[in-house]
Amino acid sequence: MSNSNSIEAIKRFPFPFAGDSYQYSVNIQPVVNEPILDVDEHYQTEIKLRNSILDRNKTGRYVNLPHMKTAQWDTLEAIMEDLATHYSQFFTLHQKGDRWTWENKILNVRDTFAFLDESSLPYEPFEYIARQVQEDIILLDQREKDLFLDAGVLTFPTKWSIEFDAGMSFEEFHAPVPRAHQMGVFKKAKSFLRRIEIGKPWTRRNWTMTVNRRLDTSFETYPAWGKDRSSVTLDNCGAKVHLRVEVQRFVRLPRSNSLMFTIHTYLISLEELSINPVWTKRLHEVLKKLPSDIVQYKGLSRYRDTVLTWLSQNTLEPEYTNLESTVYSRSL
Amino acid sequence: MNSISLLTKFEFDLSGSRHIVCAEGDAVDLICNQIEKLGYVPENTNILCLSESIVVDKKLNIKYVSTLENLIAKLIENLSSAYMGTRFYAVGSEQFVGDLRNHPIRLGMGSDEITLAVVERKKKRVFCSTCHEINTQVTTKIFNCFYCGIKLEIWSHFSCLKNAYLGVCADAEEVL
Amino acid sequence: MMQAVKIIKIKNLTPKIKVFRLTEIDGKKLKAFSPGSHIAVEIPVGQKIHRNFYTLCSSQQQTEFYDIAVLLTNNSRGGSQYLHRSKIGTKLNISYPKNSFSLASFAQKHILVAGGIGITPYLSMIAYLSKNNIPFELHYAAKSASECAFYDFLKCEYSSQVKFYFSELEEYISPEKVLEKQPLGTHIYLCIPHSLRKDFITRAKSIGYPKSAIHQEIFGAKKVNQKRSFIANLSKSKQKITVAKDRTLLEALEAAKIPIDYSCRIGGCGACEVKVIAGDIEHLDSYYSSVEKTQQNKMLACISRAKNQQIIIDL
Q: Above 80 in pLDDT, residue B123?
């Protein structure tokens, strides 16, 4: 994938660090008066990529346990309403009782179907809508005071497999994450997520780094891209190494009482990032202080030092720029 | 589906009013020891034991079964006629416990009605995260996937649904 | 999030229970909901607005309207009296649906036990269960058939699955009979008076029902006592901050320009944690475990308060 970011995309990049150090916390904000999903300049490229991954081999990328049928329709409804409300130039939804007509002008899709009648759509409702958004989507079933990963579409993961994690409880599927368990972070996050209400979505950001502009860093393709991590040099670092930010959103689904968890992945190369010296400086600080187990977990061990050197050589003093205010008003 | 922690020792959950126990081979001794310690056999206890040699033990009413298939068939028969208040136990190797755990869950039992005790964890079932096949009887931390040939490292991440550990490509990042 | 609705239909179910049908004022769809959900209805009482909670007793298939059943009570803050006096066309503000009494998704069989007005959450549940062919039994106790809300409807639609118990006829529910010999994977739901609920729970435990198979309806948020003002003494910056009764500690700290982190502002995420050196804390958050709460050494500034007049904080 070689779609680099336009200057506008760089300016609205969801830079994840508000301060200079890395901390585990639930770090969650309400989503108010803005869309759940983001349709950006990479829409068509990423939809094409998602379709090709799903068409090649759906196992491992698409999971949907039998009791999640209602949640599938919930997801379709929530996404269609969100897109039609916030991006009405591209998407329209007409509802006449159970007879719905959905139009996606970007993909040239127009379908009329019966809501809650699976046979009226070309795919299962969840897959149908997932093929029209850039976000990966996970559906968590809420029962027994816990959240279970019982459905999902995952084409752009950072080294995890939805095929393997299917059916797991909240703490089970987070088992490989270091530290947070001892700190009780997941217990607290879970109790927060369980109380999310209809109409009050929340968002948080998660980050890591990726070598080359590659969205599909899955286990399934790990043998193909793993070596990239050994290819970073000071010369190619700026173009090759990307900061990878996941904007995650949590939405209570009304009919099933399940929780929809969307993940929009944004990639920005260090060169693109360095347009904003505040960002380069902050990333440098965070990376420098990052504990070694987290470095290992995020897969940065092989190239963190090179990145640190590159960042220190390419950081201007923030006083020389007025970009920060522009960028921050968007990202915070 | 449900998260059930694996224990290394066996104890009856006496809040139940019926007990269905499955044991593998010598693991049945753990149950006998526990009964001895209690001083009585809890009411409505059925013990199924997977074993080649059949020992007659009338006192504990242990049913010996020679194959896993027969044991599972017997278990399902027992569970289907069981009522609320029943507790299920599996005691044996990690593999044995994993083979049985999903049967009571499928019939609607919850994690607080199920006790799993593992006495041997040398042989593992491992899910290949590259080709999605499951390797059985794995005894080393690093091995080659029987199906796709890739070198796998076993993580401690475990899936109840797959009854397997996660296997991750061990040398993906290495440059030859 | 609120929805503006109006009453379009009122029906007397019993001398004391009325059912109200609500639709969106502009004829739009109402928010969909899951079986067992409730809404908060804003009721104007004098100058104030009270929030009363009512379960939705219409089917989730239906998003054109909601039905709520309201029992007239004397003791309350006047909410049920206000509704019982309302006429068709009365406008109300209601919350989005919320579910704190949901069906267990993996249960093989559901036993629903209702007493009087406790029937309401089960109506949306049985609509769902019967549509999906999931086994259930409904045990419903009332004074008599004429004081039994939805009697005709239930008798007609679900006659084989519903059992009525009328105290006037000296019919009583026997927890033992209901609970014994139920298949594995049975879950029970209790919406009944306290003493009967206790009998059910005791009996269920002695049979060996696990805790996770017993569900009770818990309504609404934790009730906060009258909030009082207090003084936060900041040990590092040597400042005294007065927290007015209608303000949070976080707001008071922000007003005083004391740097403090925050995120959710509803006591759920832990971002605004402050260390407490002395003074008793009234924890109102849902973030800390009960053990952490008893330690009394940290609190969330966005929601929790001092129990007494002063508290010393490490800021």
A: yes
Instruction: Report how far residue C60's alpha carbon sits from residue C152's, in angstroms, rounded to the nearest whole number.
Output: 21
Residue A12 is among the residues annotated as catalytic for this protein:
no
Q: Specify the pLDDT at position A189.
A: 87
Q: How far apart are the C-alpha atoms of C23 and A219, rounded to whole Å?
A: 50
Of A68, A17, A49, the closest CA to residue A209 belongs to A17
DSSP line for C258-305: -----SSSSSSS-TTEEEEEES-EE---SSS-HHHHHH-SEEETTT-E
Work out the pLDDT band at A316, boundaries 50, 70, 90.
Answer: low
DSSP three-state, residue B109: coil
Q: What is the ipTM of this complex?
A: 0.86
Query: What is residue B141's DSSP assignment?
Result: S
Considering the domain architecture, whether residues B35 and B71 belong to the same structural domain is answered as: yes
d(CA A13, CA A43): 15
Q: What is each CA distance from A206 to A138, A203, A272, C18, C314, in whole angstroms?
A: 15, 10, 19, 50, 30
pLDDT digits (tens, 9 = 90+) for C164-173: 999 999 999 9
User: Do B139 and B55 share a domain, yes or no?
Assistant: no
Cα separation, A215 vs A212, whole angstroms: 9
Task: In whole angstroms, give the CA distance from residue C285 to residue A262.
Answer: 27
CATH code for the domain defined by C230-313 = 3.10.20.30
pTM: 0.88
A contact residues 255-294, partner C, Cβ 8 Å cutoff: 255-257
The single-letter code of the amino acid at B35 is I
- Percentage of the residues of chain A whose pLDDT score is greater than 90: 80
Range of the domain at B133: 124-169
The arithmetic mean of pLDDT across residues A46-63, rounded, is 94
Interface of A with C in 87-106 (CB under 8 A): 95
Sheet holding C214-216, edge to edge: C162-166, C136-142, C109-115, C186-191, C214-216
The two structure tokens encoding residue A2? 């070689």
Q: Report the CATH superfamily, name and number, of domain C2-95.
A: Translation factors (2.40.30.10)
- Measured distance CA(C214)–CA(C197) in Å, rounded: 11
Q: Are residues B149 and B75 in the same domain?
A: no
Both structure tokens of B17? 């009013």
Contact A221, A161 (CB under 8 A): no
The average pLDDT across C288-295 equals 85
Give helix B68-80 / helix B94-106 axis angle, nearest 10°: 30
Percent above pLDDT 90 for chain C: 70
**Pick the catalytic residue: A12, A204, A214, A302?**
A204
Region B152-157 average pLDDT:
95
- B23 and B96 both lie in a single domain: yes
CA distance A79 to A132: 10
- Which residues have C-beta within 8 Å of that of residue A303, sequence separation ≥ 6? A209, A211, A229, A232, A237, A241
Interchain contact, A171 vs B159, CB within 8 Å: no
Interhelix angle A323-331/A277-289, nearest 10 degrees? 60
Q: How far is A183 from chain B (nearest CA, A)?
A: 19
| β-bridge partners, A211 | A241
* Per-residue burial over B104-122, b = 16 or more CB atoms within 10 Å of its CB, e = otherwise: bbebbbbbbbbbbbbbeee
CB contact under 8 A, A169 and B155: no
C-alpha A28/C-alpha A37 separation (Å) is 17
Q: Which of B20, B84, B86, B161 to mutate to test the interface with C (most CBs of C within 10 A)?
A: B84
pLDDT at position A332: 30
Closest CB to A223: pick one of B132, B150, B159.
Answer: B150
Please compute the mean of the pLDDT values over residues A274-303 and round it to a whole number. 93
Q: Distance between CA A158 and CA A153 in Å, rounded? A: 13
- pLDDT digits 0-9 by tens, A282-294: 999 999 999 999 9
